[in-house]
Amino acid sequence: MDLRKQQIAFYTALLFGALAAMGWGLKTAGIQGAMFGFFASFTLGGGLMCIWERSVVRSAFSLMATFCGVAGLFILLGHDFLAMAQILIYVGGILVLILFGVMLTPPDLNERQLPRVGLGVVAVVGALAFVGAKVAAVVNWAQAETLPPAETKAEQIGAAFLRADGYVIAFELAAVLLTVALVAAVYIARRKPSDLIDLTEEGGY
Amino acid sequence: MEYWDGMKAIAPELWLTGFALLALLVDLLTKGRNSRTVGYVTLAGLGVTALALMGQSERVTAFGMVEVDAFGRFFKLFTLAALAVVCVFVMSDRRERQHGIGEYYFLLLGAAVGIFFMVSTNNLLLLVLGLELLSLASYSLAGFHKGNKASAEAALKYVIFGGLSAGVMIFGISLLYGLTGTIDLAEMATLGGEGLPRGLVSQLAASPIPVGIAVTMVLAGFAYKISAVPFHFWTPDVYQGAPTPVTTFLAVASKAAGFGALLRFLGVMFVRGDVQGLVADYGGQVGLLIAVLAAITMTVGNVSALGQSSLKRLLAFSSVAHAGYLLMGVATMNNEGFSAALYYMAAYYFMNLGAFGVVLYFEGVNGNDHIDSLKGLGRKAPLVSIVMVAFLVSLTGLPPTMGYYGKFLLFTAAIDNGMTWLAVIAGLNSAISLFYYFRIAKALFLEEPSDESVPRTQPIFTGMLTAFGVCTVLFGLYVSPIMQWVVSSMDLLG
Amino acid sequence: MTVPNEHLLFLAAILFAIGVCGFFVRRNSIMVLLSVELMLNAANLTFLAGSRMHSTAARPELSGPIFAIFVILVAAVEAGVGLALVIALFRRKQTVSLDQLNELGD
Question: Which ipTM was obtained for this model?
């Protein structure tokens, strides 16, 4: 099969998968099930596209679908603050950063021949999916009827961040983490003429 | 008042953070012209932090997450001591004085803050944040020589493997959280299921498989930090490509931090007296998994080290092998083995810092780190070469050195706990390691020098190396001071 | 929401598997870093599923969502530093392909 046909087959399969997920959700859990199917197919479809697409730009953009799908699932679970953070940070921050990276580097020709999907990788992925299924099936996860909606409000999170018996120390450590990351990234990425001299070539000590 | 008490308990961490920012500020104010000043500021910061640490004696929990205890203090003082030596390395390395020195010290101190938190918390959230802080600082330090292709490549490899292991570890933690309903290790181990299935014990009663998967995934994160198989691939490349002081930092401080966090994770979750019976039994199986990993790790490390011609790569594989020996103590899952691992860590401090210091010295003399270029240096630089032999003897585990006594303790712990097979494998491995350590000694002393040039020396640097050599032998003969410190530090399980 | 928790966990496990697969399949270092983001997103979904399972109406279980916020932060800083390193390498070697990382070794 040539490239074009492969792509058509791949996207058709994704579309039908998404429709099936939504239909199944609608049948088993009503409108919320359909929503779940919708967001889930966004999430997984984006992820699959990301590793299947050969072009880096398309892969990066397909991640937007994943991130938005996950944000939708967050809303469905009642965590609207988290969903907002997800959209702001992932779609607004990380993805833009990635696109900068993609544009600063030229297209990579090696990536054109995808089939590095050896048997080993397929086996690994199969095993992982099996593991996931095992965890989900074996554990006595509570049933849907008994589950209360777990909701977080921004106030609750804010209070937990700042209470001494809450997460204040993690919050502060996150601040240190961000400072270190900022200094590190700026140092590594900035360019001065002197930076390009290979200092290690003249003997040290 | 609650905040104030908590702040007092984490005073060392606060001092360290403050001095990290000060180092950056001083560099800014001196416009990078006076790099020594920044080095002295950093050393002062390490000293103040050490004083603040030694002032602590009571055992408290700050902010509900940070455990201030003697076990954490051991690893914190260890980190400070290692960082002080790394600072001296940086200050005496001509290549490091050129630019960005403020960032260099800032990142080193930032990494230390990460280590401080990761070795002193039972809370998985704080553990992840501390680990990430250490990782991020290490990534950028590994790539600090931007002009050097090898350094940039090493950093990229490091960040990519680091990302994988962080992803796997965080997913494992999320599974643990889903299984137990808490991110606090002590609660996981002690809660028993009333009402909702909280705590590990109810999940283990239902089925041990998911718990095993989750714990294995978390262990992957630790395996990466301590460079245990199968997460050791980055080690030789990063050790070779990174600036040598950074390599020293990664090999000593970062690895010790990984072990500190691993010991606390396993100790609090499976070994402590107050954990539920079923959980403690399960801990035995986790110990068996670690024993297998230890055997594979030391074998892979030693066998790969045999064919190396670059000293830094050789020491990298040797550090993988040492991770295996240390894991042997961890695998016993009791006080004896953990103490042995702690003692071996102290031995590892002296012999590895010393060995990397000598590599730095030879690199300065020869401009590269190939074993062939060491030929005949025993005649040109006798003092450093003799000291290097002491380190090599200790790394092999022969008497009369710290390495010997440490290995003796580890072997005893393994045999006492019914892991004789592991001790046998470790013994065979020590024999293999003799070959490649001897190759270095042979190059130094038994071969003719290729030219007659006499290397320059820096008295402080040579003096420090000699002191390490003396300590390696002295504490190997006179074990009680370090042993006492180790015994008093093992309050983790009590 | 009436969807059972198992489905959420399946979803997270598959997303994680896709991330791991991407990590090993792609040769472009930027895409490899992105695969890690997929894994972290899967972890976040699991955290929320866990929080949902252990919450009661009287005692909402907050540590899951809060952990998820910090995971987003960790993902952001890793992407930032990782990309800085990719760009630094690109300046020296004019490539971002993992296949061409060959400076190191014996």
Answer: 0.96
